[in-house]
Amino acid sequence: MGQTISEKIISNHVGRKVFAGELVISEVDGAMASDTTGPLTIKAFKEMGGTKVFNPDKCALIIDHAAPSPNERIANLHKMMRDFAKEQGMRLFEIGEGICHQVMVENEYVKPGDIFIGADSHTPTYGALNAFACGVGSTDLAAVMMTGKIWLKVPQTIKVHCSGKLQDGVTAKDLILFLVGKLTVSGATYQAIEFCGEAFESLSLASRMTIANMSSEMGAKTGIVHPKGLELEYDFCAITPDKDANYIKTFEFDVSDLEPQVSAPESPDNVHNISNYEGTKIDYAFIGTCCNGRLEDLDIAAKILNGKKIHPDVRLIIAPASQSVLLDAMSNGIMATLIESGASLITSGCGPCVGTHQGVPADGEVVISAANRNFRGRMGNPNSNIYLGAPATVAASALEGKIINPKKYLL
Amino acid sequence: MSSINTIIEAKAHVYGDHIDTDRIIPGKYTKTLDLSTLANHVLEDLDPNFNKIVKQGDILVAGINFGCGSSREQAPLALKQSGISVVIAEDFARIFFRNAINIGLPVLEIGKHNIQKGAELSINLKEGTVTDITANKVYTATKLPDIMIAILNEGGLVPYLNKNGNYTL
Q1: Model pTM above 0.95
Q2: How far apart are alpha carbons A363 and A383 in whole angstroms?
Q3: Which pLDDT tens digits describe chain A residue by residue (411 residues)?
Q4: Strand, coil or helix: what is A287?
Q5: Could you confirm whether domain B7-164 is CATH 3.40.190.10?
Q6: Where in the sequence of chain A do the CATH 3.30.499.10 domains occur?
Q7: Which of A97, A185, A362, B6 has its CB 3.0 to 4.6 Å from that of A93, i.e. a possible disulfide?
Q8: A176-189 residues labelled b (16+ CB within 10 A) or e (exposed)
Q9: Could you tell me the end-to-end alpha-carbon distance of chain A, in angstroms, rounded to an integer?
């Protein structure tokens, strides 16, 4: 019987051929935690008798969720992380180095074919790299760091096939929002997703990360983009599914006519064509996060904002996904264009997306965000409303002070 | 069962579908190791009164996809610290489900139900049954994998690994 990508990767790690439904204890290639999950991980690691992390070169801690520290309580948690990393000889990514998922990929902590476990729900982002990556909580992660292993159920897989090419100005974010709307926030619970078809084949690594990232918005254990067309700076052995692999469900969409998509409050699957929301007044626009803070995202925003000023009633906040993204955006002029248009640059990291600091909306305000979640209270104020869209949509909306289709700025 | 009570009888607090982790404990309160801070803000954006009415041992009941969103273990920790002894839902988001078991908070998936706010429930964790005493109806929960039962029986993953040193299936 044929195997899916997840079944193949897990089989390679347990040393026998396994299929969906089997419970396994698998070797893990790498693991990471952020400053939301890291302190509890360290506490659990010590309480469960941990002394040494299983592979200090493949385990990392990242300070990104509240960076730099907004108060003394969080400053002390950050110190606890720094002390633990030093004691273990593992790397701690400091404030401003970037968002956990971005720095794990940039620094090659995760590679195609790996099993990577992260204490963050957006860990499936590495499915862009043809890896099996799952999010867990702090205690699970502590156990991975101690044992180098995880127990898991080999997931069933949903196949999502998209034919057609996206129109100019329609991006990976629009595609994944569309799919979240179709599959819903619980459409892939406990399951893996494989994304395949022409629409994904021409996507950059950054765009594939946007796709895989939002697998978690459908409840998926992992989401893997088929490797066809994937280009990396190093050689790799692509893992593809067998022709007779068994899928629990298959979705087929033709996305050649897809228009930009918007997810309305207050669930990521409340997705509609942008035309349904055009004209909605906004107060605040945000481009960043593990979903859409990469160079191509800042680049398309800069193309739209080039030489113009954002609407006087709107503030635009930019949080590059990493220091490396920021340096690239500085050296090629993108960052200057954004700042000259009126954007405010904040530290690379999760920033306003997690509602801790760096841009909490006021009561009654409306936000258009390139992030991946718009749950009530997500950005720190339950009395504000969050719309999700592509970076192009966010930039165009910041210009006009209302939600707008970015197409006319990209022709 | 050593650390977890097998029989729980208490009142149900009932909420709806897709209760996400931001609603269980908003992100702005998660960065702490102080469990009482978590309990003080549990479910505040969903039901500002919850924290005042919840009593030690009470039961939380929800619809589908309970705990979706973030991986924050602070969500089940906040519920447990507030006094909740068990969470029952039609089904759960996967990370929340694992996190709850890992910190020793029992969770039961019972499919479609009609449990009403304030109902008196009797739960037999060993048998996996939920009896709605008020409505005189019995629900049977999906059986947990053996490894999860073993983790729960020890009171969570920390005591489980303390005892065993590694996983066994």
Answers
A1: yes
A2: 5
A3: 999 999 999 999 999 999 999 999 999 999 999 999 999 999 999 999 999 999 999 999 999 999 999 999 999 999 999 999 999 999 999 999 999 999 999 999 999 999 999 999 999 999 999 999 999 999 999 999 999 999 999 999 999 999 999 999 999 999 999 999 999 999 999 999 999 999 999 999 999 999 999 999 999 999 999 999 999 999 999 999 999 999 999 999 999 999 999 999 999 999 999 999 999 999 999 999 999 999 999 999 999 999 999 999 999 999 999 999 999 999 999 999 999 999 999 999 999 999 999 999 999 999 999 999 999 999 999 999 999 999 999 999 999 999 999 999 998
A4: strand
A5: no
A6: 1-258, 262-409
A7: A97
A8: bbbbbbebbbbbbb
A9: 49
Helices (DSSP H) in A341-390: which residue ranges? none
Q: Give, as one character, the DSSP assignment of residue A124.
A: G
A262-409 has CATH 3.30.499.10 classification: yes
Interface residues on B facing A, Cβ-Cβ cutoff 8 A:
18, 20, 22-23, 26-28, 30-33, 45, 64-65, 68-74, 91, 93-95, 98-99, 102-103, 145, 147, 156-158, 161-162, 165-169
